[in-house]
Amino acid sequence: MCIGGESVSDDYSVGIPDDHFIRGHIPMTKQEIRVLVLSQAKIKSGHTVIDIGAGTGSLSVEAALQSGTGKVYAVEREPEGFELIKRNAAKFGVATIQPILGDAPAALAGLPQADTIFVGGSGGHLQEILAAARQLIKPGGRIIVTAVTIETLHNTLADMEAQSAFQTEAFCAQITRINKLASCHMLQALNPIYIITAIAPAAE
Amino acid sequence: MCIGGESVSDDYSVGIPDDHFIRGHIPMTKQEIRVLVLSQAKIKSGHTVIDIGAGTGSLSVEAALQSGTGKVYAVEREPEGFELIKRNAAKFGVATIQPILGDAPAALAGLPQADTIFVGGSGGHLQEILAAARQLIKPGGRIIVTAVTIETLHNTLADMEAQSAFQTEAFCAQITRINKLASCHMLQALNPIYIITAIAPAAE
Amino acid sequence: MCIGGESVSDDYSVGIPDDHFIRGHIPMTKQEIRVLVLSQAKIKSGHTVIDIGAGTGSLSVEAALQSGTGKVYAVEREPEGFELIKRNAAKFGVATIQPILGDAPAALAGLPQADTIFVGGSGGHLQEILAAARQLIKPGGRIIVTAVTIETLHNTLADMEAQSAFQTEAFCAQITRINKLASCHMLQALNPIYIITAIAPAAE
Amino acid sequence: MCIGGESVSDDYSVGIPDDHFIRGHIPMTKQEIRVLVLSQAKIKSGHTVIDIGAGTGSLSVEAALQSGTGKVYAVEREPEGFELIKRNAAKFGVATIQPILGDAPAALAGLPQADTIFVGGSGGHLQEILAAARQLIKPGGRIIVTAVTIETLHNTLADMEAQSAFQTEAFCAQITRINKLASCHMLQALNPIYIITAIAPAAE
């Protein structure tokens, strides 16, 4: 992978294993889901990314590795998450992540227009966050919502499709890990995640 | 995405939509699965890739976009697939794909050592193909098998883990597409796919 | 299974294979889903059942086999479905099914109080159908909705839980069939179905 | 449901909620899976059932409720499970369960011919257990294996299909529970389970 003109080590290409991140008590988007979310994001070097509900910062780190000279704003309302984002950014050597402690959408004030906006958590303010994201997204940019509740899934689809200029698509990913136990391979389900992508209209 | 120093168009970054490929009557690995498989492959510019059971060539095309100046050998035993690979390589402007018509492992004769080997079809010769893949893989390289049958899943795990030098891991991906129908969003399941990755021992 | 004091043949106990039913061009609830839906319904001999959006009548037939001397009202708005219900009732020898051609909730007029009400299709009138079902359900009875769209899932949960007297629960069932093909077993996904059960308050 | 001529309470019809059982540290087959397994078993009043790897006895209890005057032999090698089976049988008032502490197939010695044999655990002796089950099953009876590992799934299919007189079928069930959390409904995956059914040849 090509990042700001430099190569990074093998381990840091897209799809970093979960246990490479420093984790606390905060839920982390799993590796396979991060990969699918990033494939929707189409991040390129120089891109600006906003990650709302950044949690441990795992997605922010992978986005930063892809955006190279760009900037990643990682918004998180839990102080523990805020600290984890800083620690994970340091661990992976990405200086372009700016952690922001606060609730969205208020915490989005002053952020620049972005090429990609991730919404991984909404703290009960989904509608306001989506409205703010539509204001912040560049023409042709992508808003990507990961939903683990029926309400976030339904309301995101309803809200985004009410904006006819945006092109919306969605799918569900259900990953089952296979764990070696003695000489057997056991099936262990991860929770299903719905991934909704809304593409902003191109500039005229 | 940075390929051999040049940028490619938006549409051609990882995760190309299925309907961008020319399709025949041959099953095609779906977009979400290609994304997950590629994230396991860690392909870098200059890498050599062998795609066994390449089908329509959709995975070969995405691998070629990632391997840049490298080479992708796309082995397919169905003449229809062989033609589709050529047409899709032309459509996406990747000149580094070399389609090979024939049955693996015989058709692998003369191929160079590879950084990544995909096994998407085995035509009943799984064990011989895996043995050949282990001969062809570079130190630290990755063999990635996609399994849609219980036998391929089980036998790949058993065969690869018998090679204690290889590090093997696996998971199942079950994707459900969400299709808009009038004002409703319908759930449409894709078939589950097991993805098995075996990493060759590093050079001493 | 004990039905009205008489035994029925092996093939007619709960979980009748799909291909035992006469099928047209109408979607049929699959065997495994019927089994799960029936396990939520707790139908006993003598019970009254209403099946809204009965389709081919497969669920009505299984409900009739369980309700024995009870009655099953199978409401379907497609004439093809209406005919299939009659033919399947005849094939399985259940005389207690009364097919009703028409749109719910209008077609529910005059039906008696029921122990179980299935909602398998709503034709865009979900809210009115759920309201009618709450009027028709006996104390302690069960309304069971099968949802194949995000809207039916979300709106059923929201609508039923707004009735605090009803106890609501839900799960998703994703069945993958295993088909023998030559010496291999292929994985074939059925579409996921959400099953929502609302239990009416007991009589005081 | 009709059990030995008597009715049981609502709660005890097929599909007993998980939390109605006394549970220890032993994995329990979940409600939805029990329902699907029982639908494959076609148990009738008077039937003899053997439950190998009975765990907490949840499946044995449901089988006993269906087999009425029949007998259920619940084989379990863990003393904790053995005790739980006794306690759950007592809780649900089924006197027809005979718990057997020991390893299968040795612990099967002396058991009578059975209409249904469940194999929920094999302790590394799958092949011997399946061979013993084929000896113990009545003509037309059903052997039902629940598999949570790739090896049990694959080896059961291979072993049963080598017996051409037996008719084998299989599917995977992946259940996702929906949990209410504040005003949201969260998706929580249960591990997928493969259910393999082998039907013995009918008597000549």
Give the structural class of chain A. Answer: alpha/beta
The largest chain-to-chain contact, stated as pair and per-chain residue counts, equals: C-D, 32 and 32 residues
Give the integer mean of the pLDDT values of chain A. Answer: 92
Shape of chain A: globular
What is the N-to-C order of secondary-structure elements of chain A (H for helix, E for strand)?
Answer: EEHEHEHEEHEHEEE
**What is the CATH class name of chain A?**
Alpha Beta
Q: What is the chains' assembly state?
A: homotetramer
Q: Let me know the number of strands of chain A.
A: 10
Query: What's the architecture of chain A, going by CATH?
Result: 3-Layer(aba) Sandwich
Q: Major β-sheet of chain A, in short?
A: 8 strands, mixed
Query: Terminal Cα separation of chain A, in Å?
Result: 32 Å
DSSP helical segment count of chain A: 5
CATH superfamily of chain A: Vaccinia Virus protein VP39
Furnish the topology, listing elements before pairings.
The structure is a homotetramer of 204-residue chains.
Chain A: E1 2-3, E2 6-7, H1 31-41, E3 48-52, H2 58-67, E4 71-76, H3 79-91, E5 97-101, E6 114-119, H4 126-136, E7 137-147, H5 150-161, E8 167-181, E9 184-189, E10 193-199
Parallel strand pairs in A: 3-4, 3-6, 4-5, 6-7
Antiparallel strand pairs in A: 1-2, 7-10, 8-9, 8-10
